[in-house]
Amino acid sequence: MSDYNDKMIADFRENGGIVPTGHGSGLVLLHSKGAKSGTQRVHPLLGITEDDHWLVIASKGGSPENPSWYHNLLAHPETEIEVGANGHVDTVAVRAEVIADEDYLAAWAKFTDKSKAFEGYAERTARRMPIVKLVRR
Hints:
By secondary structure, the protein is an alpha+beta fold. The chain has helices spanning 3-14, 68-75, 101-114, 117-124, and strands at 27-33, 40-46, 48-50, 53-57, 78-85, 88-98, 131-136. Strands 2-1-5-6-7-4-3 form a seven-stranded antiparallel β-sheet, sandwiched between helices. It is globular.
């Protein structure tokens, strides 16, 4: 994990889910288990909250390949996220489900409404960035 991500994770946990360095309260900390290594990792991601689930997007900043956490979730879809709630951080057990084609455009619009950076990521890559629904278990 990078120093940047480590700092973001520490800030998230220390500030009840708020990251004061410009990321605010829109993040979740996604836990993943390495598909090959079995190593546990934590990834700070923009999370869009909806009813009983959260959406995250495998953008990797518009890289040509999907991020490792996406492959890890395909191999191990039962996982946890950390979310900020009422000034503290809660851990929530979730199951990862890749958004189906018929629901993709509506989910994509939620990310581009939240941050125009995703439009730039899409311009940099030929791949469709997978969107994952994290459903509370």
